[in-house]
Each structure stands twice: as structure tokens, then as C-alpha cells.
User: What shape does this take?
Amino acid sequence: MTSMRISQLAERSGVPATTLRFYESAGLLSADRTPAGYRMYGEDAVDRLAFIGAAKHLGLALEEIGELVGVWEAGACRDVKADLRPRISARLAEAEARAAELAAFTASLRGALAHLDALPDRAGRCDPECGFLVPGAGARSVSARAAGPVSASAAGPDTGQGPGSSTSGSAPVSDGAHGGQPVDVVLSPGRRAAGEEAERWRSAPVACSLGGDGLHERTARWREAVAGATRAAVPEGLRLTLPVDRVTRVAELAAAEQECCPFFDFRLHLDGPHLHLEVRAPADGGALLTDLFGSTD
Assistant: This one.
């Protein structure tokens, strides 16, 4: 049987060596060892990685993929199909819910801009008569992590932040287009309570499960989304300032990035016509952060 070292498997599969090591630590991929301690893989590793990659593109979590790989190894296609179908259905329902929530959030932003444009220009100082401070009509802000819910609220009473859960956790968005009623917005799934999720990125492995064409496509999408951004250094990362009309695209990309690279921490803040995106990473992920989002130089 053909044996490959990790560099050869990475070249054959298009999956970076750092990700292969991560898959091994997560129990998704196994390797034999030479007397000198080098990892050696059989030809079946290429097929396994293709299966894992396909499952990742469906948005399945690593623990789900591990369960599915166990079924796949048994060799019965009908069993894989039976196991996979409810997982895809669940992800589809979540994706449709997030799409509806983001559409509602986008509508609220458009309503806020329309309200702002309709207000008369006044020479005096801003006060409640300007309408900026009316709940549901003023500026929105988002300040949260893409690993959990994103909270967006109208200027006014603090609405708080909900728990980080992929199915029920969300944060309220005060939406002028909905009569000031909250609209839940969730950027990406999470499985633990908000307190446990808060600093997950700090301890996550610095490895990305994307590879090959998927990695190149994601990089190209990010570079297009943040083109022309003003960059400034923040502790452990950088802040990019963009036009506010990119919020939906950036939020969707941040959610997708967290799925494959959980060591990135994303925070979004809406400030009138501007969107401030803060991205952080652990110290050993700093080079990857710079490669993807640029530097302040």
C-alpha cells in the first residue's frame, strides 16, 4: 500500500499540514509512525480527507463529522445517507433562519437610513427633536463575536445579549421597520453558553479546515469585502473601518470563517455610515491574520 509523509498528503489532498495535524488531534485522521517518528499515511487518507472536506462544506461541526466518518468507514452507503440526511436538514433550517434574520436586520438598516435622510437639517445642536434618539429610528450598533450571537440595538435602553446557541441563542435587534420590536440576529452557530464561548478563540487550535480551492475562494471573498478599508491596530489584532452597506457580507463571511478557523475572534460595530470590524487571533495566529486581513503598515 502506498505510504505518504504529511507533506505528500498535504500536496495530494490540498489540505494544509497544520490542518492534518489538527484532524489527527480531533480523531478524524490517523497516522502510522516511522521509527524516526515521522507520520505516514495510506492511500485511504486521501479519500477520507475528501469525505471530511465535503462534510465541512455542508456546514457540519467537527464532532458531527467524526460521527459521520465512523458510519462511512463501515462501508454501507445507505447508512451514510440515512445518517447524513437529518444533519443536512437541520443545517438547512438553521441557514434559512439566519438568512431571514439577516434580511430583517438589513431591512432595519435601510429603514434607519431612510429615516435619517428624511430628517430636516438643523443648525442647532442635536436633541431628541432631531429623531436620532427615538428607539427604532437612530443608529444601530453590533458588538459581539461571530462565534455566537451578534447584538444590534437602537440607541436607547440596553437590550442585553442572548446566549450563544445555534438553535435558540440570539440577541435582540431593535428594528424600526418592525415597530421597535426585537428581531433576533445570529451570525453563526454556537453550542455552549455565552460565558463559555466568550474566549473560545484564545484556546482554539491555530489551524484552518479549509484547503485548496475553498481556501483560495474564501481569501478572495474577504479581500473583496474589506477592499479600501482603513486599518488600525487593536490589542491582539486590528480594526478595519468600512462602509456600513457591507455589514451583511462581512457578517456572513465572519460566520463562515468561524466554522473553519475558530481561532479568529470577530467583533462588529455599526457607527452611522461606518462599519468597524475588529479581528483578533492568538499570538501564533498573527501571521494568518495578517495574510487574510492585511496590516496597519
Observations:
- DSSP finds ten helices and eleven strands in the chain.
- Residues 137-197 have pLDDT under 50 and may be disordered.
- Residues 165 and 190 are 5 Å apart (CA to CA).
- The radius of gyration is 22 Å.
